[in-house]
Design goal:
By secondary structure, the protein is of the alpha+beta class. It has a single domain, classed as Metallo-beta-lactamase, Chain A. The protein is built from 5 helices and 17 strands. Strands 3-4-5-6-7-8-9 form a 7-stranded mixed sheet, with helices on one face. The chain has a 6-stranded mixed sheet with strand order 10-11-12-13-16-17, covered by helices on one side. Helix 4 runs antiparallel to helix 5. The chain is globular. The termini are far apart. InterPro entries: Metallo-B-lactamas, RibonucZ/Hydroxyglut_hydro. This is Metallo-beta-lactamase domain-containing protein. It comes from Planococcus maritimus.
Protein backbone atom coordinates (compact mmCIF):
# COMPACT_ATOMS: atom_id res chain seq x y z
CA UNK A 1 0.00 0.00 0.00
CA UNK A 2 1.30 3.46 -0.91
CA UNK A 3 1.83 6.04 1.83
CA UNK A 4 -1.32 8.12 2.22
CA UNK A 5 -1.47 11.91 2.15
CA UNK A 6 -4.10 13.85 4.09
CA UNK A 7 -5.90 16.17 1.68
CA UNK A 8 -6.51 18.78 4.40
CA UNK A 9 -2.98 19.27 5.75
CA UNK A 10 -0.96 17.58 2.98
CA UNK A 11 1.13 15.50 5.40
CA UNK A 12 2.09 11.96 4.39
CA UNK A 13 1.72 9.12 6.89
CA UNK A 14 3.49 5.79 7.22
CA UNK A 15 1.95 2.95 5.22
CA UNK A 16 -0.57 0.83 7.14
CA UNK A 17 -2.66 -2.26 6.40
CA UNK A 18 -5.90 -0.30 6.77
CA UNK A 19 -6.86 3.25 5.92
CA UNK A 20 -6.78 5.37 9.11
CA UNK A 21 -9.99 7.09 10.13
CA UNK A 22 -8.17 10.24 11.22
CA UNK A 23 -5.08 12.28 10.45
CA UNK A 24 -2.99 12.77 13.62
CA UNK A 25 -1.92 16.24 12.48
CA UNK A 26 -5.45 17.49 11.81
CA UNK A 27 -7.14 16.15 14.95
CA UNK A 28 -5.44 18.72 17.18
CA UNK A 29 -6.24 22.28 18.24
CA UNK A 30 -3.80 23.89 15.80
CA UNK A 31 -5.28 22.23 12.71
CA UNK A 32 -8.73 20.93 11.78
CA UNK A 33 -10.55 18.08 10.07
CA UNK A 34 -12.35 19.13 6.90
CA UNK A 35 -16.11 19.63 7.41
CA UNK A 36 -16.50 17.12 4.56
CA UNK A 37 -14.68 14.49 6.59
CA UNK A 38 -11.27 12.83 6.44
CA UNK A 39 -10.04 12.07 2.94
CA UNK A 40 -6.74 10.74 1.63
CA UNK A 41 -4.78 10.70 -1.58
CA UNK A 42 -1.26 9.60 -2.55
CA UNK A 43 1.58 11.42 -4.21
CA UNK A 44 1.33 8.99 -7.12
CA UNK A 45 -2.37 9.82 -7.61
CA UNK A 46 -1.59 13.53 -7.55
CA UNK A 47 1.08 13.19 -10.23
CA UNK A 48 -1.05 10.93 -12.41
CA UNK A 49 -4.01 13.30 -12.24
CA UNK A 50 -2.09 15.95 -14.25
CA UNK A 51 -3.89 18.51 -12.09
CA UNK A 52 -0.91 20.05 -10.33
CA UNK A 53 2.40 21.63 -11.17
CA UNK A 54 5.03 23.41 -9.11
CA UNK A 55 5.91 27.02 -9.82
CA UNK A 56 9.62 27.48 -9.08
CA UNK A 57 10.56 31.17 -9.06
CA UNK A 58 13.80 32.93 -8.21
CA UNK A 59 13.17 35.46 -5.43
CA UNK A 60 16.71 36.77 -5.26
CA UNK A 61 20.17 35.45 -5.93
CA UNK A 62 20.49 32.08 -4.19
CA UNK A 63 16.83 31.87 -3.16
CA UNK A 64 13.97 30.24 -5.08
CA UNK A 65 10.38 29.67 -3.99
CA UNK A 66 8.36 26.54 -4.78
CA UNK A 67 4.58 26.68 -4.74
CA UNK A 68 2.02 24.15 -6.00
CA UNK A 69 -0.60 25.37 -8.50
CA UNK A 70 -3.51 25.01 -8.01
CA UNK A 71 -3.09 25.25 -4.27
CA UNK A 72 -3.12 21.96 -2.36
CA UNK A 73 -3.93 21.44 1.34
CA UNK A 74 -2.49 24.32 3.43
CA UNK A 75 -0.89 25.89 0.36
CA UNK A 76 2.44 26.88 1.89
CA UNK A 77 5.53 27.92 -0.03
CA UNK A 78 8.84 26.07 0.28
CA UNK A 79 12.22 27.61 -0.55
CA UNK A 80 15.48 26.34 -1.96
CA UNK A 81 18.30 28.32 -0.36
CA UNK A 82 21.65 27.96 -2.10
CA UNK A 83 24.96 28.27 -0.30
CA UNK A 84 28.43 28.01 -1.77
CA UNK A 85 28.32 24.21 -1.93
CA UNK A 86 25.32 23.40 0.26
CA UNK A 87 21.63 23.76 -0.63
CA UNK A 88 18.76 23.75 1.87
CA UNK A 89 15.10 23.07 1.24
CA UNK A 90 13.34 25.23 3.80
CA UNK A 91 10.00 23.72 4.73
CA UNK A 92 8.34 21.31 2.35
CA UNK A 93 5.33 20.94 0.10
CA UNK A 94 3.47 17.76 -0.79
CA UNK A 95 3.68 17.75 -4.56
CA UNK A 96 6.85 16.45 -6.20
CA UNK A 97 6.99 15.52 -9.90
CA UNK A 98 9.72 14.81 -12.49
CA UNK A 99 9.74 18.42 -13.74
CA UNK A 100 10.33 19.76 -10.22
CA UNK A 101 13.09 17.21 -9.66
CA UNK A 102 14.80 18.20 -12.91
CA UNK A 103 14.57 21.91 -12.06
CA UNK A 104 16.04 21.47 -8.60
CA UNK A 105 18.79 19.15 -9.81
CA UNK A 106 19.81 21.89 -12.24
CA UNK A 107 20.16 24.18 -9.21
CA UNK A 108 22.58 21.75 -7.58
CA UNK A 109 20.08 19.53 -5.77
CA UNK A 110 19.25 19.56 -2.06
CA UNK A 111 21.66 18.62 0.72
CA UNK A 112 19.37 19.23 3.69
CA UNK A 113 15.69 19.69 4.42
CA UNK A 114 14.93 21.88 7.43
CA UNK A 115 11.42 22.20 8.84
CA UNK A 116 9.76 25.00 10.76
CA UNK A 117 7.03 22.82 12.29
CA UNK A 118 4.89 19.67 11.72
CA UNK A 119 2.21 21.23 9.49
CA UNK A 120 4.83 21.40 6.72
CA UNK A 121 6.30 17.90 7.07
CA UNK A 122 4.20 16.98 4.00
CA UNK A 123 6.11 14.43 1.85
CA UNK A 124 9.50 15.30 3.34
CA UNK A 125 10.70 11.68 3.21
CA UNK A 126 9.92 11.48 -0.53
CA UNK A 127 11.95 14.66 -1.09
CA UNK A 128 14.82 13.42 1.08
CA UNK A 129 15.02 10.09 -0.70
CA UNK A 130 14.81 11.72 -4.12
CA UNK A 131 17.67 14.14 -3.49
CA UNK A 132 19.71 12.12 -1.00
CA UNK A 133 19.17 14.74 1.69
CA UNK A 134 19.01 14.67 5.49
CA UNK A 135 15.94 16.00 7.30
CA UNK A 136 16.45 18.31 10.29
CA UNK A 137 13.67 18.55 12.89
CA UNK A 138 13.89 19.90 16.43
CA UNK A 139 13.63 17.06 18.93
CA UNK A 140 10.73 18.78 20.71
CA UNK A 141 8.53 18.03 17.69
CA UNK A 142 9.64 14.44 17.21
CA UNK A 143 6.26 13.12 18.40
CA UNK A 144 4.55 14.68 15.35
CA UNK A 145 6.53 12.72 12.75
CA UNK A 146 3.97 10.64 10.83
CA UNK A 147 6.42 8.86 8.53
CA UNK A 148 9.73 8.00 10.22
CA UNK A 149 12.96 7.76 8.25
CA UNK A 150 16.60 7.09 9.03
CA UNK A 151 17.32 10.30 7.12
CA UNK A 152 15.91 12.33 10.02
CA UNK A 153 18.20 14.14 12.41
CA UNK A 154 16.56 15.45 15.58
CA UNK A 155 18.59 18.38 16.80
CA UNK A 156 18.41 19.87 20.28
CA UNK A 157 19.05 23.15 22.03
CA UNK A 158 18.25 26.66 20.86
CA UNK A 159 20.36 26.82 17.69
CA UNK A 160 22.03 24.47 15.24
CA UNK A 161 24.44 25.25 12.39
CA UNK A 162 23.39 23.25 9.33
CA UNK A 163 26.36 24.46 7.30
CA UNK A 164 28.34 27.65 6.92
CA UNK A 165 25.85 30.48 6.56
CA UNK A 166 22.78 28.44 7.62
CA UNK A 167 21.66 28.46 11.26
CA UNK A 168 18.45 26.99 12.68
CA UNK A 169 16.92 28.69 15.71
CA UNK A 170 14.25 27.10 17.91
CA UNK A 171 11.95 29.95 18.96
CA UNK A 172 8.84 27.95 19.90
CA UNK A 173 5.40 29.51 19.88
CA UNK A 174 3.30 27.82 17.22
CA UNK A 175 4.86 24.49 18.29
CA UNK A 176 7.31 23.74 21.09
CA UNK A 177 10.05 22.97 18.58
CA UNK A 178 9.05 25.73 16.13
CA UNK A 179 12.11 26.76 14.14
CA UNK A 180 13.29 29.56 11.86
CA UNK A 181 16.22 29.59 9.43
CA UNK A 182 18.85 32.33 9.54
CA UNK A 183 20.59 32.86 6.20
CA UNK A 184 23.66 34.75 7.31
CA UNK A 185 25.44 37.51 5.43
CA UNK A 186 22.88 37.74 2.63
CA UNK A 187 20.99 40.84 1.56
CA UNK A 188 24.24 42.84 1.31
CA UNK A 189 25.39 41.40 4.60
CA UNK A 190 22.25 42.43 6.50
CA UNK A 191 20.90 38.88 6.83
CA UNK A 192 17.69 37.08 5.89
CA UNK A 193 15.24 35.04 7.97
CA UNK A 194 12.90 32.35 6.67
CA UNK A 195 10.20 31.92 9.25
CA UNK A 196 7.47 29.58 7.98
CA UNK A 197 4.45 30.82 9.87
CA UNK A 198 6.24 30.82 13.19
CA UNK A 199 6.44 34.52 12.40
CA UNK A 200 3.88 35.34 9.73
CA UNK A 201 3.91 38.46 7.58
CA UNK A 202 0.41 39.95 7.60
CA UNK A 203 -1.57 41.79 4.91
CA UNK A 204 0.14 45.05 5.86
CA UNK A 205 3.72 44.15 5.02
CA UNK A 206 5.01 46.46 7.77
CA UNK A 207 3.83 44.02 10.44
CA UNK A 208 3.94 40.35 11.43
CA UNK A 209 1.93 38.15 13.77
CA UNK A 210 2.32 35.10 15.98
CA UNK A 211 -0.34 32.45 16.67
CA UNK A 212 -0.86 29.11 18.38
CA UNK A 213 -3.46 28.22 15.74
CA UNK A 214 -4.04 30.24 12.59
CA UNK A 215 -7.11 28.43 11.23
CA UNK A 216 -8.78 28.35 14.65
CA UNK A 217 -7.64 31.86 15.73
CA UNK A 218 -6.04 30.79 19.01
CA UNK A 219 -3.46 33.38 20.13
CA UNK A 220 -0.21 32.81 21.95
CA UNK A 221 0.28 34.07 25.52
CA UNK A 222 1.86 37.50 25.88
CA UNK A 223 4.84 36.03 27.75
CA UNK A 224 5.55 33.62 24.89
CA UNK A 225 5.53 36.41 22.29
CA UNK A 226 7.80 38.54 24.48
CA UNK A 227 10.25 35.65 24.77
CA UNK A 228 10.19 35.04 21.01
CA UNK A 229 10.80 38.73 20.33
CA UNK A 230 13.78 38.73 22.71
CA UNK A 231 15.30 35.74 20.92
CA UNK A 232 14.75 37.29 17.50
CA UNK A 233 16.29 40.55 18.70
CA UNK A 234 19.60 38.70 19.13
CA UNK A 235 19.70 37.63 15.45
CA UNK A 236 21.00 39.96 12.75
CA UNK A 237 18.61 40.24 9.80
CA UNK A 238 16.82 42.85 7.73
CA UNK A 239 14.56 40.74 5.46
CA UNK A 240 11.93 38.06 6.17
CA UNK A 241 10.25 35.47 3.95
CA UNK A 242 7.25 33.68 5.43
CA UNK A 243 5.39 30.49 4.49
CA UNK A 244 2.86 32.16 2.24
CA UNK A 245 5.14 34.07 -0.11
CA UNK A 246 4.90 37.27 1.91
CA UNK A 247 8.09 39.26 2.30
CA UNK A 248 9.31 42.21 4.32
CA UNK A 249 12.13 43.42 2.10
CA UNK A 250 13.82 45.74 4.59
CA UNK A 251 13.53 46.71 8.22
CA UNK A 252 12.08 43.30 9.13
CA UNK A 253 13.94 43.21 12.46
CA UNK A 254 12.24 46.42 13.58
CA UNK A 255 8.87 45.26 12.18
CA UNK A 256 9.00 42.11 14.31
CA UNK A 257 9.80 44.02 17.49
CA UNK A 258 7.04 46.59 17.06
CA UNK A 259 4.61 43.82 16.02
CA UNK A 260 5.39 41.85 19.16
CA UNK A 261 4.74 44.92 21.28
CA UNK A 262 1.44 45.58 19.50
CA UNK A 263 0.41 41.93 19.96
CA UNK A 264 1.20 41.99 23.69
CA UNK A 265 -0.55 45.33 24.13
CA UNK A 266 -3.64 43.92 22.44
CA UNK A 267 -3.70 40.88 24.72
CA UNK A 268 -3.17 43.04 27.79
CA UNK A 269 -6.00 45.40 26.86
CA UNK A 270 -3.90 48.54 26.43
CA UNK A 271 -3.89 48.78 22.62
CA UNK A 272 -7.56 49.69 22.25
CA UNK A 273 -10.83 50.06 24.12
CA UNK A 274 -13.75 48.24 22.53
Amino acid sequence: MKELVCTTCGVQIESTETVPSQCPICTEYRQYVSPKGQTWTTLEEMVQSNTYQNDVSQEEQGLSSIKTVPSFAIGQTAYVVQGGNFNVLWDCITYLDPQTIETIQAMGGIDAIALSHPHYYSTQVEWAETFGAKIYIHEDDKQWVTRPSDRMIFWSGESFELAEGFILHRVGGHFKGATILEWENRNDGKGVLLTGDIVRVVADRNWVSFMYSYPNFIPLPATTVERMAAQLNDIRFDRVYDAFHRVIMEGADKAIQRSAKRYVDALNGVLFDT
